[in-house]
Amino acid sequence: MTDKRARNEIIKENSHQLRGTLAEGLQDVVTGNIAEDDHQLIKFHGSYIQDDRDVRGERAKKKLEKAYSFMLRLRIPGGLTTPKQWLALDRIASEYANGTLRLTTRETFQYHGVIKSNLKRTMQAINGAALDTIAACGDVNRNVMTAANPYLSKAHKQAYDLGKAISEHLLPKTGAYHEIWLDGEKVEEKVRKAGKSEEPLYGTHYLPRKFKTVIAVPPDNDVDIFAHCLGFIAVLEKGEVVGWNVTVGGGMGMTHGDTNTFPRTAEFLGFCKPEQAIDVAEKVLLVQRDWGNRENRARARFKYTVEDRGIDNIRAEVEKRLGYKLGKPKPFKFEGTGDPLGWRQTLDAKKDEDKKWHLTLFVENGRIKDVPGRTMRSALREIAEAGYCDFVCTSNQNVILANVASKFTSKIEAILKAHGVSTEVSSGLRANSMACVSLPTCALGLAESERFLPELLTSLEDSLDKAGLRSDDIVVRMTGCPNGCARPYLAEIGFVGRNPGLYNLYLGAAFDGSRLSKLYAQDVGKERIIELLDPIFLKYAKERKSGEHFGDFVIRAGLVKATTAGNNFHDNIKLA
Ligand code: HEM
Ligand code: SF4
What we know:
The protein is an alpha+beta fold and 576 residues long.
């Protein structure tokens, strides 16, 4: 019988619970690369091997191996770090990486440009800050995102606590990480002799693909709940969480030209009580472990399991494993997916002295760096050194300076000003923008993203001015390939790279993150993008109803048909 399983399944099976030959590969000083199979395994440890694509041609001509380096992604449930941790992370960026901190679209940091000889030291430095990179990538439950800022209200704290607990509960338990990176005790043999499994939840094959969990507190849908495999939406009574609406089966990635693959918005599984939530998370994950597709990785995400089996069958199986029924989802309302920028005060503090301040700072495409005249990285370092606040990475690639006492707000403002960091953003469009990394580090990028979106937005701001829309909130997102790391199919305006300089343009997603967009134009470059959007902005400004969002308007105006579920994302396309 031929083995139809995807290659990664065999790599996992033979890996000794994610060890592979990583430890040996790190010691080989002849190359900056690691063994082919280890490319897959190192993801589970929070890292991707990459190469600098800007210098590929030049190095090939000189017969040099590619300029290999590693991307390292941290696991930071809820995105919360202390000032001490922030300082450690900042130091690591200079000592071992390319001098920038990249806030991701999933509430964590990435480093780029860590070379092999520094990998272990970097991991140890991260560990020294009481953080880790376990399961930040790979076929496991990834970083758990929670509604931004645990200090904002009691409910936000409850969401954060649940996120942290789920992250711990669903963490791989293999000793591989500690052995390889932290010189921990070799436990494999011992566990085997004791007749136990190193991975009681994941087994030897882990999940068929990555698995992503998020927790939202209405009315904010900042975590983009419908884009994720598993979601918990807080149901509140008098500001307290009395339970969670559970969602399953969302996801973004697809393959250009393959209509069997599509982004999908999550559906409702039911309602659970606070004390049931971790158990629910575990059982949902186990259903995907056992039912997910292990032959075709392009169809292996949980969203396809939910699509193919149907939500009712998934619910029945989860309830069977739980041993009890879930309740019916309770009413709630989301208002938007963005981060309210600027200062906010704790929402539900009773006494004045408990009211703290929280500043959400816009970070363009999440890249925290110093450039002449605008030294954001140094400003944040200075704020951390003074210990004025904790830091929260948001799912919109921004940072919140959280839990600030009133007496420190002006001090923070003065530091930001001295470093040329404004709390103002040039337009509502930019304030609601995100771009994935893409070139030069991401091997999958077909077009520029992070390096191109800022200049495109500058041009589009001229169009907005003509229409008088500069301060309107419109969600725009760009990715360099259809994998969708910046969730472009849930943006009111989405750009997805096809070829160098060319993008597919998607319109019509809902501002609150509940509806996907639809393809509007194919293979468009900068000039054509402006030519297409210019008249639409004018029309929107003239004809919109009061309070109508851009994504809803383009549907009412007949520019695109509404996508009502992932399985009709590719239907009714009429290209401009
Ligand atoms: C098949 C699908 C996907 C693959 C193969 C993939 C692969 C990658 C790779 C290689 C990177 C590293 C880029 C770099 O830092 O240079 C990356 C970044 C990232 N991906 Fe994905 N990705 C996929 C889908 C997604 C989706 C659907 C999401 C979120 C909903 C996501 C979230 C992220 C995040 C947060 C980053 C960090 C950088 C950023 O914020 O742009 N990925 N991905
Ligand atoms: S969307 Fe594509 S190009 Fe962008 S970071 Fe993800 S995998 Fe890379």
